[in-house]
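Reading group handout, session on sequence-to-structure problems. Before we discuss, look at one worked example. The prompt was deliberately terse, the way you'd type it at a terminal:

> structure gamma-glutamyl-gamma-aminobutyrate hydrolase

The input record follows.
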Amino acid sequence: MTRPVVGIIGNTDLLHGSYPAFTGGHMNAEAVSDVAGCMPLLIPPHPNFVSVEELMAACDGFVFTGGRPNVHPEEYGEEETAAHGCFDRCRDAVTLPLIRACVAAGQPIFGICRGFQEINVAMGGTLYPEIRDLPGRMNHRMPPEGTLEEKFALRHPVKLTKGGVFEALLGADEVMTNTLHGQGIKKPGARIVIDGYAPDGTPEAIYVKDAPGFSLAVQWHPEYRAGEDPVSRPLFEAFGKAVYAFAEARRERVSEEA
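And the output record:
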């Protein structure tokens, strides 16, 4: 049986300082392939090369990955400041309308870090430019030094809503996660339900209320060692099941229309 296709939103980088490239992390592809059981397909985040309609036709679900550039504050009605960091307006132009279209169609989406923030902004929410500058907040950014294992190490608990979507999925009301982000949710978008918080009050787990399909997102990075981590594995397994169900339903519709 052909595996469903999961589009992994890529990032734009300069290789060797000058060669433009679209890139995607090996960990994201591994999690989609080995844990979700789907075929990963890297998506170039540029509206000159892809459209929402083409992407939704080619893929059965999407992972909105992390990335160094932030969502531009104009996308949520605020002025750009130095604290907002760098941006990728081309990725914004692809991901934000794609998220809204997928939510409406019930096409599965899973947001990670920047992808978590994109889902909030796509649904009308806003972001803080720098969490660590807020009173009482911890520094959620990736440690600047150390090995990959040290950078992705579990650093704080996330308290999940009792009886909520994430507690049911993970089988616990508190989990340990890594943390590698600078920005965070300021105001949740319409239909965005915050289902988990860090100890300092930073939102860490969300879903879209009444969405007809899988529409979950986390502020941490579950793709790291997804196959062996007790929190990451059920997230990608549940996403994979949703993608398989969507793909099967689409095949049945096509068969009926033929």
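Points for discussion. First: The chain has one domain: 5-257. Second: The longest strand covers residues 192-197.
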